[in-house]
Amino acid sequence: MTTGRALGLLVCTACRATLRAAGATPCLCPRCGARVHPRKPNSLATTASLLASAALLYIPANLLPVMHMQTFFDVEDDTILSGVLTLIQEGEWPLALLVFIASIVVPLLKILAMTWLLLSVHRGWRGSIRARSRLFRLVEYVGRWSMLDVFAISLLVSLVQISSLATVQVGVGALAFGAVVVLTMLAAQSFDERLLWDADDRG
Fold it and tell me: Fewest CB within 10 A of the end CB: N or C in the chain?
């Protein structure tokens, strides 16, 4: 399979310009001035470190409370899962399903998918490269929607504080969850998709 690298072509990851490698690499992109490398430096190590950190924080993000609510009559701590169960009990099935998928399923699937992609590059697995490339682009696209739960909590906090009926504080779990989302997004950005094709050639 003929690749751009075999033809002496480089792609600027900043502006997506295609240029021909001339002389020593890395070189500077003539369009945006960014430094262009044949492959992102230390891509696998950086992505693996970010994924490991996200996987470790995923546990407290789901076990620790994301919201602390205090009213005149009660004090309540809610985790993501308890919030989903509360929505189900109140008959808000669509919203509960949305929060469950966006806040629990999607981050876990992103970590698993990126781990599988890393292993496929590291071990040189051969197979459907296009399918793996589509998977990576899907992970990169849906990552931003994982912030839905954090956005909902921040909106709820502002609304409750304005109404003065209760006091709501963001819990440690929300901070851990936000860190998981940011780390998985950074992991997807640091991963060089072209390594999938290099691994197939090595295999």
Answer: N
